[in-house]
C-alpha cells in the first residue's frame, strides 16, 4: 500500500492538522522556561479549566498509554485492583504497562457494545479489608469506547455513584473524548465534570495533534503527589511548551469539535454505504468514528492492499475501520467501490 494513501486503520495514522503545526511554529520563538514553567503551558491549563471547571488541574504527557497509566498510579497502591472492560485499551493494548507501573491487578468484566454496567462490576466488589484479596479501587471506562460506541451521561453518572459508594474512583480513558462529546452533542463539562468523574485521560493525538495528551484531575487533592509520578514515569517534557501550544491551537475556534464532527460524519457515511452491501454485516452501533463489520474472509487481503485496516476478530472475520479528521468522501467512495468489485470477483 502507498504509505501516503489514506486508509482506515487508525486515526493515529492521520497527519497533523495545519492549525496545530502553526501553533507549534508560533511557540518556537525565543526561550521559554522548561518543564512547564512557560506561558504556553500556563495558558493551556487555563483552557482546560474553562472547559472542565475552575477547580480542575491539568498535566501534560507525551502518550495515551502514559496518560492512562499515570492516572491509575495517582489513584492506587500496588495492592489495589482496577476494574475495566474486557475490551479496554489498558487491558488489551498497553503491553501490561498499567500492571507493571502501578503493581495493580486488572479485573476485566464483559462489555456489551464496548460498555460495562454496574451489575457486571458489582460481582467484583467484595473482599474489602481482606488482606488476601486485591482491593478494588478504580473503575476505568473508555469514552468513546474501543467499539466506537458512547456512554450516555446517565451511564457515566451511575458508574461514578457505584465507585464512590465503595470508596473507589472513576477513571475515563478519553483517547477519543472529542468524538464522544460531538456524538452526544454536549460539552466536556456536561459529560465528565457534571457526572462526577474523578480523573480523565484527555486525548488529542487521534484528533489532529502531533503528539500529547493531558491528565485532568477533577477532584481537588487527587494530584497531591502527581508531579513525582510524572517524573518517575519519564513523561515530564523539558520543552513542554510544544505540547501545550498544540492544545492552545486545538481549542482555538473549537478545532477539536470541527475535527471530531468531520471524523464522525465520515464514519456515518461509510456505514451507510456499507449497509447497502448484503455480504457485509455491521456489528456495532456507529456512534463515533469507528465502523466494525464482518467481511467475507477472501476479500480482506485485497482490501488491505489498497486501504489498510486492522482485523478485530480473526475468528469471525470482524474488521475495524476508523475514520479521521482528514478522511475524505472520495476515500470512502473508492473503498466501497473496491469492496463491491472484490466481491464480484470472488462470487
Q: Summarize this, please?
A:
This protein has 347 residues and is of the alpha/beta class. Helices cover 40% and strands 16% of the residues.
Describe the structure.
By secondary structure, the chain is of the alpha/beta class. Helices cover 40% and strands 16% of the residues. It has 14 helices and 11 strands. It has helices spanning 18-27, 39-52, 64-75, 89-92, 97-102, 118-122, 153-165, 177-184, 188-191, 226-232, 241-251, 255-274, 300-306, 329-345; strands at residues 57-61, 80-85, 105-109, 135-142, 169-174, 199-203, 213-217, 281-282, 290-294, 310-313, 318-322. The longest helix has 20 residues, at 255-274. The radius of gyration is 21 Å and the shape is globular. The mean pLDDT is 96.
Number of beta-strand segments: 11
The CATH homologous superfamily of the largest domain is termed: Type I PLP-dependent aspartate aminotransferase-like (Major domain)
**Can you identify the CATH class of the largest domain?**
Alpha Beta
Number of structurally distinct domains: 2
Series of secondary-structure elements, N-terminal to C-terminal: HHEHEHHEHEHEHHEEHHHEEHEEH
Total helices: the number is 14
Taking the sheet with the most strands, its summary is: 7 strands, mixed
Poorly predicted runs of 5 or more residues: none
- Give helix % range: 25-40%
Query: What CATH architecture of the largest domain would you give?
Result: 3-Layer(aba) Sandwich
Shape: globular
Strand order of the largest sheet: 1-7-6-5-4-2-3
Percent of sequence in beta strands? 15-25%
- For the termini, the CA-CA separation is 25 Å
> What is the average per-residue confidence, as pLDDT, rounded to a whole number?
96
